[in-house]
Amino acid sequence: MSDQRVLRPAPVSGFPEWSPEIRSVEQRWLDHIRAGFERYGFASVETPSVENLDVLLAKGETSQEVYTLHRLQADPDDRSDARLGLHFDLTVPFARYVAQHFNDLTFPFKRYQMQRVWRGERPQEGRFREFTQCDIDVINVDQVPLHFDAELPRIAHEVLSGLDLPAWTLYVNNRKVLQGFYEGLGIADPVAVIRAVDKLHKIGADAVREILVERAGLTPEQAGRCLDLAAVKGADSASVVAEVTKLGVSSALLDQGLEELAFVLDSLADLPAGAVVADLSVARGLDYYTGTVYEAAFDDDPGYGSICAGGRYEDLAGQFIRRSLPGVGISIGLTRIFAKLVAEGRIAPGRSCPTDVLVVLPSAERRDDALRTAALLRGRGVNTEVYHQPAKLGKQIQYASRKGIPFVWFPPFEDGKGHEVKDMAGGDQTAADPASWLPPAPARD
Amino acid sequence: MSDQRVLRPAPVSGFPEWSPEIRSVEQRWLDHIRAGFERYGFASVETPSVENLDVLLAKGETSQEVYTLHRLQADPDDRSDARLGLHFDLTVPFARYVAQHFNDLTFPFKRYQMQRVWRGERPQEGRFREFTQCDIDVINVDQVPLHFDAELPRIAHEVLSGLDLPAWTLYVNNRKVLQGFYEGLGIADPVAVIRAVDKLHKIGADAVREILVERAGLTPEQAGRCLDLAAVKGADSASVVAEVTKLGVSSALLDQGLEELAFVLDSLADLPAGAVVADLSVARGLDYYTGTVYEAAFDDDPGYGSICAGGRYEDLAGQFIRRSLPGVGISIGLTRIFAKLVAEGRIAPGRSCPTDVLVVLPSAERRDDALRTAALLRGRGVNTEVYHQPAKLGKQIQYASRKGIPFVWFPPFEDGKGHEVKDMAGGDQTAADPASWLPPAPARD
Fold first, then answer.
1. Per the annotation, does B133 bind a ligand?
2. Looking at CA atoms only, how far is residue A49 from chain B in angstroms?
3. pLDDT band at A445 (very low <50, low <70, confident <90, very high)
4. The pLDDT of residue A65 is above 90
């Protein structure tokens, strides 16, 4: 083998990969999130990793981030793959899914989708090119009850609260508040303002003011009021509405937006204090949101960006079907959260293997005994390995110890003797019956 | 919306996608397979969907099937993505993973990996371009105990037996038997013979004979004996060895291969009759197998190809690391099996949503009551929806019925009244306490 060229098995930047100890934690997280989504009746959907490019690009804005696929050995004349791209989020594929399966779904259709997505970023520290998102969306025909605008952040809160994260806050806003306020101020292009305000936390108030005046054509007075609105923040709906009203702008859309925002805040008032906060600077740059918007960030590192985000959209499936199919959704950035905590050493490694019990192999002659013992244990759901070859006892126990296997089982080494099990943590070794023994519950985590 | 161009939301051929009812069955399958793998102590690993092309192409043979990635808006001069391809199996990424994480793993390293893989096939009926595989492999330093050659098909058998599949058989062979036999016959290029014999079931004995004589340069006598060997088949190790021995060829490698094959058959003799059969025509075309090989097929549709396959390899990680890291693995073709059964109508659709209980929303005023009721139920693990808006009772019950939700819960419609729950299957409606009620076990599937 020594004369062979050795390829360095390097990680590919932006494509995270975990050791078994970390992967077992990630799997536990995924199971927890899934159970949380199902607890609220959301159904699992998976879509292909690939969509036709015209589906992916229908919204235009993110086109620079798409990875297209090409067959390595394709004929130059063969264009059959040229229109395929990896999805960059789960919302666009879901909108296509709903339109395509429209006649087979019951509405309002509530689905969760936990899949990898890809963004064709330049390789760069901290940028993921492949990552897992956990999305829930509700899509309905013609109108989506406001009920869901409050239910989705509740689910996200419940799910993330079970993951022992550093403190974080879910910020809520409503695009109708922003748009209604800007319109009330007589601004012609509210979307340009939304895009500028969306940069507030990155570039600061003065830079936003400059954009608003220089590029969006606002008067300094208008720009000042937009920044006043963006400064409104609070968990109590009445105070938030009062603060906005005090700014002296009015429009029917603004009123409707405030009513919706207050409904969401009031519906979530039973959550722990500070869990959900209205923040009128939250705009969500993507232009398909039309009402409630969400964005969650770590309290001690708000600059890391959103760990969970979403909102209400009116027409995402509109390009696929001649029906009005509005929706509201929220997306948990699983990899975004998990990879940060791994990098910071805040994820306690899990077990390196799921084995509860290692059954010792006393000798080649007693292999059948060992296999039968293991089969009995497995039959009751105990994850069990049989040591893979006859070897000195010390070596077999050392293997269990290195792998963190909590119990070692000794089948009879000679006829007439009984079974024994050793608790690797406590060191106790006691007689046990493979037909009835179970590990104590905590060891089976 | 009517003036908009409507994109037909068509499925992309070769990229399967399921309705929620079918997806829920697929998820159950995946959970079942994962639990089966963990029962034997295999640890979860996931690798990125992408590898460097030189990793994917190190083995050469499958290069025409690789999808490469390109950024849609990449600068023509930017070659940073040009060397990335989607993995076409899980074995090559796993070999790279083991080499890369070598110092952090405990050997023998036993992992399972359940992920999507991609093959850049031309779009064509019945060919998947994206599909999920469920692999288990054991890799060890220097040598892998034969124990695992028998354990892997046992796990595959146990896992697939729990999925209510049409009858299928796992065929076992050993490349040393083939190579040793061909060498014993004085054939210079045994690999050419293996490739030809691998086509036996597709093209028939006469065509294979012709290839062996015309192209591989065998004498008709040698070709005949190769075909005689390929005809040997049986579940009993002693008879299989006897039949091969009767063909009058001998070599040390052949003897070793027969001994290994017999060990595998004997170790699995406790499985149901006919579950595992030695079939000396099984060759597995890929040239990295060096010992035991596996291939499973449906009894009523053997031509559909292998639903589960694998074998022992000596040097798959050899291009990444200057250590000898042999392994043995088996791969369940989840999508291959599942999609066939879906297409044939042999998968009974599951629930369209995981909801156990729909809590009726009596009126906007009683929303908090309904939410509290649901929270109590969810707190005990009952998957619960609250109806999303005040509506006529009949409409709410109809929604539960259409979605197949087994229970409808009536919180008090006015003060002083109690809770009731309706069993949608039986029609009974009874008083119930949201703080203690649980659905009967079978309804929670």
1. yes
2. 8
3. very low
4. no
Interface of A with B in 85-114 (CB under 8 A): 85-86, 96-97, 99-101, 104-106, 108, 110-111
Q: Closest residue of B to A399, CA-based?
A: B106
Give tens-digit pLDDT for A148-194: 999 999 999 999 999 999 999 999 999 999 999 999 999 998 889 98
CB contact under 8 Å between A389 and B147, yes or no, is yes
Contacts of B120 in chain A (CB under 8 A): 69, 71-74, 81
CA-nearest residue to B52 within chain A is A12
Query: Considering the domain boundaries, does residue B191 fall inside one?
Result: yes
For chain B, the distance separating the N- and C-terminal CA atoms, rounded to the nearest angstrom, is: 41
Give the per-residue pLDDT at B1: 39
Residues A138 and A228 in one domain: no
Q: Do A55 and B9 touch (CB under 8 A)?
A: yes
Residue A281 domain-assigned (yes or no): yes
Residue A23 lies in a domain: yes
CA distance A225 to chain B (A): 34
| B166 touches B300 (CB < 8 A) | yes
Q: What is the pLDDT of residue B67?
A: 93
Written as six digits, the tokens of A170 are 């879910």
Rounded mean pLDDT of B286-306? 89
Residue in B45, B315, B367 nearest the CB of A20: B45
The answer on A211 and A154 residing in a single domain is no
Domain stop point among B316, B343, B370: B343
Residue ending a domain, choose from B343, B365, B381: B343
Residue with tokens 């001994």: B259
Q: Is the domain of B291 the same as that of B410?
A: no
Q: Which pLDDT band holds residue B360 (cuts at 50, 70, 90)?
A: very high
User: For strand B109-118 and strand B43-44, is the pairing parallel, antiparallel, or unpaired?
Assistant: parallel
A306 occurs within a structural domain: no
Rounded to the nearest 5 degrees, what angle is found at the Cα of A420, between the Cα atoms of A418 and A421?
Answer: 160
Same domain, A85 and A184: no
Q: CATH number, domain at A380?
A: 3.40.50.800
Say yes or no for a CB contact (<8 Å) between A386 and B147: yes
CA atoms of A95 and A187, how far apart (whole Å): 32
Q: Which residue has the higher pLDDT, A121 or B134?
A: B134
Per DSSP, chain B holds a count of helices (H) and strands (E) of: 14, 17
Q: What percent of chain A has pLDDT over 70?
A: 93
At A352-397, the pLDDT tens digits run 999 999 999 989 999 999 999 999 999 999 999 999 999 999 999 9
CB-closest option in A54, A64, A129 to B72:
A64
Q: What is the ipTM of this complex?
A: 0.94
Q: How many residues does chain A have?
A: 445
Q: For residue B80, give how far its alpha carbon lies from the nearest alpha carbon of chain A (Å).
A: 8
User: For residue B285, what pLDDT band results from cuts at 50, 70 and 90?
Assistant: confident
Q: In this complex, do A44 and B58 lie within 8 Å of one another by their Cβ atoms?
A: no
Q: Are residues A180 and A194 in the same domain?
A: yes
Same domain, A160 and A171: no
Q: What is the pLDDT of residues A326-355, one digit of tens each?
A: 999 999 999 999 999 999 999 999 999 999
Closest CA to A237 of A157, A164, A150: A150
| Contact between B212 and B223 (Cβ < 8 Å) | yes
| Cβ–Cβ below 8 Å for B64 and A42 | no
Partners of residue A1 in chain B, C-beta under 8 Å: 315, 318, 322-324
If asked whether residues B244 and B314 sit together in one domain, one would say yes
Q: B 326-365 residues with CB below 8 A of A?
A: 352-355, 358
Are B16 and A120 inside 8 Å of each other by CB?
A: no
Report the number of distinct structural domains present in chain A.
Answer: 3
Rounded to the nearest integer, the mean pLDDT of chain B is: 91
pLDDT band at A126 (very low <50, low <70, confident <90, very high): low
A238 and A133 within one domain:
no
pLDDT at A416 (0 to 100): 85
d(CA A96, CA A104): 14
**Dihedral sign, CA of A133, A138, A140, A143?**
negative
Search chain B and give the residue with CA nearest A386.
Answer: B40
Is the CB of residue A109 less than 8 Å from the CB of residue A139? yes
Domain ranges, residue B181? 20-343
Domain at B316, CATH number:
3.30.930.10
Task: Give the integer Cα–Cα distance in Å for B224 and B226.
Answer: 5
